């Protein structure tokens, strides 16, 4: 349903600049927004589009000037825009109403009020599904799994035996939670599989992308902390512990028994060896390889990962290496008898 700009500003706690009575019916990127759309800028490189955009309004931080179109000013424009999206776009309806007759649910499973379970879902013995949780078609829930309230489980998600999922958790298609960790003991005849008898524990308000794999603990749990967000194609090995409000970007691999503190950010394709600890607030740049523990608040980059300033100095030195080699060669030629 369309909203006036002043209604949106009131909802997000922003300040109106210009006509607050214009109607906003949709949101769009600033480069392609049209009349009736609201857009935003959080990154300065998009400021150039303020001169050409046909959007009806824009959400801006205080430091970016604009007098062409109406503005909502907000200290955190990205967060404000996220709130506006919640207002303009209704919640997506479940794929199925109620419990499908084509779902297979063990007689011992407990299903909460208002839960929807789509066709071809399986819910195993002893499992509990909380109130108003949505299981999309073909979700597989194993034995003794607990899923909290208001969760959204997308198609073809697999949650295996003993896993515990908190409230308001979203898990996207193709993700597997609770598969065996990768553990083998060498002996004279080859490799002996170490039985993985732990579980996975996911706290409230976590979102997990598509095709993520989170292994059960070998002994004890693999843990994902409250509010953490995990992108697509991430591998989390057995007995890893991830703190609260972490951001794990696509194609990250975290080896067994590694621990992440709260607010850790791992950019795309970061790899972590096992049995290390990253303190609260650590940030690791894309494609870095981390082979040792990192204290809280540090930013690391490179392979092997080093403190950011040191990595930048090394990169700058490597760029000068060809010229240095030429100078050395010239000196050597000059010194020959």
In short:
14% of the residues lie in helices and 28% in strands.
What does this structure look like?
The chain is 14% helix and 28% strand. It is of the alpha/beta class and 337 residues long. The strands form six sheets. The protein has an eleven-stranded mixed sheet with strand order 10-13-16-19-24-27-30-33-36-38-39. Strands 8-11-14-17-20-25-28-31-34-37 form a ten-stranded parallel sheet, with no helix packed on it. It has a nine-stranded parallel sheet with strand order 9-12-15-18-23-26-29-32-35, with no helix packed on it. It is flat, with a radius of gyration of 26 Å. The mean pLDDT is 95.
Topology summary:
Blueprint: E1 3-4, H1 5-12, E2 15-17, E3 23-24, E4 26-27, E5 37-40, E6 57-60, E7 71-73, H2 77-88, E8 104-105, E9 110-111, E10 116-117, E11 122-123, E12 128-129, E13 134-135, E14 140-141, E15 146-147, E16 152-153, E17 158-159, E18 164-165, E19 170-171, E20 176-179, E21 184-187, E22 190-193, E23 199-202, E24 207-208, E25 213-215, E26 221-224, E27 229-230, E28 235-236, E29 241-242, E30 247-248, E31 253-254, E32 259-260, E33 265-266, E34 271-272, E35 277-278, E36 283-284, E37 289-290, E38 299-301, E39 306-307, H3 308-319, H4 321-335
Parallel strand pairs: 4-5, 5-6, 6-7, 8-11, 9-12, 10-13, 11-14, 12-15, 13-16, 14-17, 15-18, 16-19, 17-20, 18-23, 19-24, 20-25, 23-26, 24-27, 25-28, 26-29, 27-30, 28-31, 29-32, 30-33, 31-34, 32-35, 33-36, 34-37, 36-38
Antiparallel strand pairs: 1-3, 2-7, 21-22, 38-39
């Amino acid at each position: 349903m369309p909203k006036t700009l002043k209604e949106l500003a009131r909802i997000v706690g922003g300040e109106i600049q210009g006509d607050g009575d214009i109607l906003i019916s949709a949101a769009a990127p600033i480069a392609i927004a049209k009349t009736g759309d609201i857009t935003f800028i959080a990154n300065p490189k998009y400021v150039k589009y303020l001169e050409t955009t046909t959007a009806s309004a824009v959400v801006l931080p205080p430091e970016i000037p604009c007098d062409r179109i109406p503005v909502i000013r907000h200290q955190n424009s990205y967060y404000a825009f996220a709130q506006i999206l919640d207002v303009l776009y209704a919640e997506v309806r479940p794929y199925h109403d109620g419990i499908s007759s084509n779902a297979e649910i063990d007689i011992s499973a407990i299903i909460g009020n208002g839960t929807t379970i789509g066709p071809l879902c399986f819910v195993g013995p002893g499992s509990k599904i909380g109130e108003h949780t949505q299981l999309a078609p073909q979700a597989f829930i194993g034995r003794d799994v607990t899923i909290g309230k208001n969760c959204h489980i997308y198609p073809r998600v697999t949650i295996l035996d003993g896993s515990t999922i908190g409230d308001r958790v979203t898990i996207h298609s193709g993700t597997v939670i609770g598969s065996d960790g990768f553990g083998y003991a060498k002996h004279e005849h080859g490799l002996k599989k170490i039985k993985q008898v732990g579980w996975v524990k996911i706290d409230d308000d976590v979102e997990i992308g598509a095709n993520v794999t989170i292994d059960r603990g070998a002994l004890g749990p693999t843990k994902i902390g409250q509010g953490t967000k995990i992108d697509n194609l991430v591998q989390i090995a057995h007995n890893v512990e991830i703190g609260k409000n972490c951001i794990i970007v696509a194609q990250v691999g975290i080896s067994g028994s590694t621990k992440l503190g709260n607010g850790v950010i791992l950019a795309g394709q970061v790899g972590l060896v096992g049995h290390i600890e990253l303190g609260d607030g650590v940030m690791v740049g894309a494609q870095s390889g981390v082979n040792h523990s990192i204290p809280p608040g540090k930013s690391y980059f490179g392979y092997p990962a080093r403190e950011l300033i040191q990595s930048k100095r090394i990169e700058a030195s490597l760029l000068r290496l060809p010229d240095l080699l030429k100078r050395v060669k010239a000196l050597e030629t000059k010194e020959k008898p």
